[in-house]
Amino acid sequence: MVRRSTPWSRRVEPDQSILQGAFLLVLHAHLPYARHPEHPRALEECWLFEAISETYLPLIEMLERLAAEGRRGLLALSVSPPLAAMLEDELLQKRFDDYLQRQCALLEDLLEKPDPATIDLEAPLRWHLARIQGIAARYHARGGDLLGALARLARAGVIELLRTTATHAVLPLLRHWPESLQAQLSLGAQAHQQAFGLTAPGLWLPECAYDPMLLPLLRRAGVNYCFLDAACLTSQDLGAGEAPPMAELGERVVGFFRHNGLSRLVWDAQIGYPHHAAYREFHHDLSDLLPLKRIGPYLAHAQIASPSGVKPYCVTGGSAPKAPYDPAAAQTQARADAAHFVEQLAARRGDHTQGPIAVLPFDAELFGHWWLEGIDWLEALLRAAPQAGVTSTLPAAAMGQAAPTPLHHPARAATWGRDGDNSAWLNPRNAWVYPLLDQAHIRLRAVYDAPEADSDAGQRALCHMGRCLLLAQASDWPFLLDHGAHSDYAAGRVKSYLARFHHLATQVQSGVISASELTLLEELDPIFPRLTAQMLQCCEIVGE
What we know:
- The protein is of the alpha/beta class.
- 46% of the residues lie in helices and 7% in strands.
- The strands form 2 sheets. It has a 4-stranded parallel beta sheet with strand order 3-2-1-8, sandwiched between helices.
């Protein structure tokens, strides 16, 4: 294999002054693959619709505004293949339009005929209506092409796009299934290339889940750098300050380590900015105020109480009743919090215990979805930072300007999850998932040797079995099982994917494959439509 040259392979000498005070924003965009053509409206598809209207479209528009002013090198972004597939799915795009129309109709109804519970909410309801109407108009104006917009921003140097794995699996938990590890990495790279027309040397490891055994696979997959939590490091490498921003992991792969102190100012449940009283309250929806008889027709299911997506209150604080949302006050607070964060970044200059650069990775959906004003905070941060002598940078640029730090001890297995380990994805609440995955891997190896596997239908069936197994491996399902939210849905997804897997396996082994059933299953989960050859290659590895 030909080794790719990397920026730091030029023997760059460490220069702490080059990046001192700089920061590297990294946003990871991912949602579970929730696509249900078998239902006219699926509650879980609303996860995507909320994220488009509150995070993905506003984020792109913010980046485009700054790009128009000539700003470059703003942040790094990964978009998972499941999310990319959903964003360009015509069925889901049409259903997103229906979702926005239902929200507008609900708000127009309440403004025309107020409910007693919404009498004092006219101002925030009118603001929400104007906001949703604007989202719909701007989304349609660009033909729903969000991936194309991101590719243009990347080519212009405004952002750097990162790849991730095929279905967001926690890779260390697949250590006994090398064919799945390779499939997750190689299919993730190919899906990124097909979505954006770009290659990406940087990898977002799902859940920042790292294990030293991954290094040879990362190098083989052409990964030059990835992003890790400081829990990977020993106390000797942490020292008295934060983790080094960049460190050599081995196999010519660099790790970027999260700056915990600064990151906590954004995401921490106790001290994080999103909990200020002025910001929108995420957990109070119109569906909490109105009887189902009134709001039901505007929800995904008229007979099931579920969020409408319209949240008219601010956080408020204390035990006082929630106050109506005031967007002007929230905008003022977002600018103030951004100014405070810039002050913290500027204060790092000269403090060499902090490292030359602050690496700040977050879930993209924190900004806009969970924290509605988060996109405004990002824009205010990116505007104010240069005025304070603090610069944003991108991973490739940082590697070209300073050398990674040698570690005293190899980085160890860790995640950015609870307790810095795998416990959120492997515990008594979700441990039942893994024996089922193990059984499927064993059966896949057996099915590959069946005589019917060599037929055209057998090849298609094997490919879709691979899709089902990859989708069942997603970190989303054990996480939801652990969290307790949507646990029935998560369990159902694992079981349904594996039931489809075994149904096809039985047909291949029996030598009787139903073409109509196979076509139906492919239509239910059309992800990776052009990656079937690679999926088959992963099966071939098993027999070597």
